[in-house]
Specification:
Helices cover 38% and strands 14% of the residues. It has 255 residues and is α/β, with parallel strands linked by helices. The longest helix has 29 residues. The model has no long low-confidence stretch (mean pLDDT 93).
Length: 255
């Protein structure tokens, strides 16, 4: 995909759009001509007379099925069926499995995994009718490598790197991606994921230097690294890429 490929006429829904990766993805899609609905739990309420035909920021709690369905319905009535969903909404969790609270497990799985599923489920009917669509989920290297921390060397690392709840939620996203990819392929819909390694965002400010040194390319990832991967998978030219979990981790994990 060329870096300047256009997304004119595409109706894009981005979750977690006030976070680093989400906001950068929404901005990149707008720059390329997409009509972007940027959703986030922290977004402000709409004004009653707001024009939504050219996109908008919408408040959305992805853990609530009815709220997700209402937002997708609003987008469809205002601009048309969503043909590009980018599931970025997510939270990280730290600490040991032994000390993990049940409520924290539920919080992380609800947002990262259930939220991604509910958003995908809500856009499937419109994509099927159009016989075209792109769903791009956000996974993680932690969903593949059982975590970056090395607690057998330094227990403190587990307090500053993604834990079992986060890893399980992202591994679930990877598995969900494969299931949806097979189910929707016959309708012209592809479902893929991007699995970033450590990316320099507000979520990784405490990432231990000892773990940073294990990244073969010698640096933390940048949001632009992830956004470029998302744009590729979202493009029309990527129609034969389906069920892929695209690693963007500087060589930290290779498979």
């Amino acid at each position: 995909m060329a870096a300047d490929e256009r997304f004119d006429g595409r109706i894009a829904l981005v979750t977690g759009a006030r976070g680093g990766i989400g906001s950068a993805t929404a901005a990149a899609l707008r720059e390329r001509g997409a009509i972007v609905f940027a959703t986030d739990v922290a977004a402000s309420a709409l004004s009653p007379d707001q024009d939504l035909s050219n996109g908008a920021e919408l408040a959305l709690d992805v853990t609530r099925k009815r709220d997700v369905e209402d937002v997708v319905g609003l987008v469809e009535r205002s601009a048309g069926a969503v043909d590009l969903l980018v599931n970025v909404a997510g939270v990280v969790s730290f600490g040991s499995a032994a000390a993990l609270e049940e409520a924290e497990w539920d919080r992380v799985l609800a947002i990262n995994l259930k939220g991604s599923f509910l958003a995908a489920q809500a856009v499937i009917p419109g994509m099927k009718r159009a016989r075209f669509g792109r769903i791009v989920n956000l996974g993680s290297v932690v969903g593949k490598n059982a975590g970056n921390a090395r607690p057998w060397l330094s227990p403190d690392e587990q307090a500053r790197a993604g834990n079992v709840a986060y890893g399980v939620s992202k591994a679930g996203v990877h598995a969900m991606t494969a299931f949806l990819a097979k189910e929707l392929a016959a309708f012209g819909v592809t479902v893929n994921a991007v699995a970033p390694g450590p990316i320099a965002t507000t979520m990784t400010t405490t990432f231990p230097e000892a773990l940073r040194a294990l990244i073969p390319v010698g640096r933390m990832g940048e949001m632009s690294d992830v956004v470029r991967a998302i744009l590729f998978l979202a493009s029309k030219d990527a129609g034969f890429v389906n069920g892929e979990v695209l690693d963007v981790n500087g060589g930290m994990w290779c498979d």
